[in-house]
Amino acid sequence: MIPSKAFAQVILLVLSSLCLTAQAKDLLAVGTSFSQIFELQPNGEYTGLGVDILNRFAQQQSVNIHYQITPWRRAISMVERGQADILIGPYDTPEREANLAFATKAFYRDDMVFYARADNEIVWNGDYASIKGQRIGKMQGWSYGPTFNEQTKSLNINEFVDIKSGIERLSRGDLDLLATNSRNTDAVLAQIKIPKAITPITPIIDVQDGFMAFPKQAKFDPLRHRFDSFFDEMIQNGTFTTLGQKYRVTLPY
């Protein structure tokens, strides 16, 4: 029989071991390629505002974060199933909240806009009746806000898995409008050549905020709470504002 003092020491050793194991845990953060938010450079380095935030979080928490870029729907599914710990950059929607646990605060903001060919005088005044009959492209798996989702049910919508394809189709005249965001679209436009120039038109479609999201399972709650506390500190001490300026990203605060 183990004396009570010795037993207590054993328990402390076990708990200490568990704490060290938890602190040394490897985390997997996933997402798709988002300009200025989550990108893979030719040298194999992951960069962007989301990566910078998570690297600082990992350093504070003494954990290792590994990154993986996958198609967007696969990334969402991996986090929903608990196969990955963090999803970088999703917009918050009621549908996603059913299967994902979102951080308390967003870390970037996007204006959702229509792009059109510069030589095509499309009439868009915010009323979806004004673009009825137009051929409209959108990105597969993206959220554009509840109004867009409802109003476009009866419109001619084509979905694309990547922005480059949508831009090229719009430039060739196979589309009249492409629904996207300026941040991602301008980054792609800077890298490719297209037959005809395209340009964003006003008014904007909606404003969407991007978050870190975590698996819904209760065992991931401590990770999310620790991230929320860390991110609050970043906002309060000004680090978050500095990073936003570094990556030229619109911040929600």
Please, what is the average pLDDT?
91
Q: By helix and strand content, what is the structural category? A: alpha/beta
**Number of distinct beta strands:** 11
SSE run = HEEEHEHEHEEEHEHEHEHH
Q: How far is the N terminus from the C terminus?
A: 60 Å
Question: What sort of overall outline do the alpha carbons produce when their principal axes are compared?
Answer: globular
Return residue spans where pLDDT drops below 50 for at least 5 consecutive residues: 5-24
Count of helical regions: 9
**Main β sheet profile:** 9 strands, mixed
Counting copies of identical and different chains, the oligomeric state is single chain
Whole-angstrom Rg: 22 Å
Indicate the percent of residues in helices: 25-40%
Organism: Shewanella scandinavica
Family: Belongs to the bacterial solute-binding protein 3 family.
Domain Solute-binding protein family 3/N-terminal: 27-251
Keywords: Signal
